[in-house]
């Protein structure tokens, strides 16, 4: 099934930084060893309010369109393999509204696994 990233959340990906996640090789109890893995990802700092809105999309793969057509993303939230890249505190910013009221915006740093899903078409 090809799920498309909901257009209403496209702004969340604006300003995303492309990074590489490095997973070291792991020695298992049975003596076997897994290889080290490198995965491309998008690192995004978003308001907590936006994170709560995209939470239901976690751990599912979504295809992108527009300037990132041919790519797919998966929001990392609970995978034990990617524990270091689970959502983390992104700090907070104090602001003043137009009416003069003070408010605080809390941020979270999230990572989306980034995959190439471009398909070739037969000529």
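^ Assign residues to that structure.
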């Amino acid at each position: 099934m090809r799920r498309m990233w909901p257009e209403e959340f496209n702004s969340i990906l604006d300003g995303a930084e492309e990074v590489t996640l490095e997973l070291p090789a792991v020695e298992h109890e049975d003596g076997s060893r897994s290889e080290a893995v490198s995965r491309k990802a998008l690192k995004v700092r978003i308001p907590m309010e936006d994170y709560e809105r995209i939470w239901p999309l976690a751990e599912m793969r979504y295809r992108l369109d527009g300037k990132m057509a041919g790519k797919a993303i998966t929001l990392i939230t609970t995978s034990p393999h990617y524990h270091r890249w689970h959502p983390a505190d992104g700090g907070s910013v104090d602001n003043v509204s137009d009416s003069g009221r003070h408010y605080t915006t809390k941020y979270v740093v999230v990572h989306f696994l980034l995959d190439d899903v471009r398909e070739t078409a037969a000529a």
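The helical segments are 48-54.
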